[in-house]
Amino acid sequence: MPPDPTEPSPTGPARPNRPMRDTSAALLTLSGLAAAFGVASCCGLPFLLATAGFSTAWLGGVALLAAPHRPLLLTLAALCLIAGAGLLWRRQPAGICATGSLCSKPLTRGLTTIGLIAGLVLLVIGYLYA
User: Mean pLDDT lowest for which of 7-16, 48-57, 67-76?
Assistant: First the structure.
């Protein structure tokens, strides 16, 4: 008798019915945050950190490396942050998630949102104070 195609194969990997995880929004957010940090490291970020009383001597090396690539970093940061926000908006919270769909835990969703906001602030600072 041939095997039933609806039954799981005894030799194949067993896959539990868990929601799929999507880390692309978090990775795009981190990429955008890093690029925005590079853009803001030359002018705006040292000014704001010095105003708050923090030393900014360590930003000199980052600013020296990022300054020639400022337009590219500005564009890359904006694109990564927009794509990360779009992917975060598209995902459903884990509480109402159906099996097999893309879900996000509240902690991951909150940290990604904080990263998007921080990246946007750095991007605006880097654009305005250049």
Answer: 7-16
> Domain total for the chain?
1
Q: Is residue 11 part of a domain?
A: no
Q: What does pTM read for this prediction?
A: 0.71
Residue 115 lies in a domain: yes
Task: Give the closest residue to 32 by CA, choosing from 130, 115, 91.
Answer: 115
The domain containing residue 90 runs over which residues? 22-94+101-128
User: CB neighbours of 30 closer than 8 A, spacing ≥ 6?
Assistant: 115
Written as six digits, the tokens of 49 are 């950190």
Residue closest to 56 by CA, chosen among 64, 68, 48: 48
pLDDT one-digit tens code per residue, 25-35: 889 999 999 99
What is d(CA 112, CA 67) in angstroms, rounded to the nearest whole number?
27
Q: Which residue has the tokens 């598209």?
A: 90
Distance from C-alpha of 41 to C-alpha of 59, rounded to nearest angstrom: 6
Contact, 35 vs 120, CB < 8 A? no
